[in-house]
What we know:
Blueprint lengths: L24 H12 L3 E5 L8 H5 L6 H19 L5 E4 L1 H5 L3 H16 L3 E8 L3 H11 L10 E4 L5 H14 L2 E7 L6 H4 L2 E2 L2 E2 H13 L11 E5 L4 H10 L5 E3 L9 H4 L10 E5 L1 H4 L5 H4 L7 H17 L1
Parallel strand pairs: 1-2, 1-10, 2-3, 3-4, 4-5, 5-8, 8-9, 9-10
Antiparallel strand pairs: 6-7
Helix pairs in contact: 3-5, 3-14, 6-7
Amino acid sequence: MRSGNVRRLPFSSRHNLTEDKQMHFADRLAAAVRETGSITCVGLDPRKAQLPAPLRNSVTHDSADEWAAAYTQFCTEIIDVVAGKVACVKPQAAFFEQLGPVGMIALGQVIQYARQAGLLVITDGKRNDIGSTATAYADGYLGQASPWGSDSLTVSPYLGRDSLEPFVAMCDAREAGVFVLVKTSNPGGGLLQDRVTGGQTGYQSVAELVTELNASRLGQSGYGPVGSVVGATYPHPLADLRQAMKTSWILVPGFGAQGGGAADVLVGLDDDGLGAVVNSSRHIIFAHAREEYRERFGDGRWQDAVAEATREMNEQLRR
Length: 319
């Protein structure tokens, strides 16, 4: 399958939450979690060296066009496997941008395909700037009416409140969402996030701002459109931040390949089992290369490995 020719899924008979323009983003996410019984978010991070052999071998001239086609096929086949089994997917923009313009076309096709499959899409772009530039990012990415058509976007808060306000305004206008970086999963994040100023760490100050921005924007689920990113690799801050940001959906990266386990991430849930989605990228999408799946599935049945890894993660988190 070439990057310019993406298959179209028939619309499911179930309610397509991605197409309901009148439904608050936080409520759509809550409905998706309830409907699928899953808090799993599958990260779509295509990497050349880790693609299954059939897709790597389809690239015969090492051209950006061929890699973009392989990325598109890889991601859309993952979507075929996980649709109806998880609440959302999170395409990582960097791996598509790495291919240049054709990679960005592939990203757009993957976002569209995921939405057609009934999945909510969190585009992981970690965008932000000030003034009209932030407005342009928000207008470009957020909501069905935007060129990218993403349901939500990860954003950085470190340019201050005025840099987040254009994104929040677009959430209001288009029933979209954002996920603000609060306490990230990388080891070096504490350099700024843990720094204490005025009796608060940096991440506590951001959490306070997230709660403030949500205060007048709550949906029927009790959550607002301003979500947060809190890594599974820091379970104690995650538990504290769940209490500090009672109205914020939390996107939890770091599960699986980065070392976070089920016990670490479940502290991010509220009493109803809502309020957090847990991202796994490499552990699911490259499951065919994991030791426990390599002999059973291998590269030839990589899609079956994705299905099994998704089932396994769902089961771990349901416990």
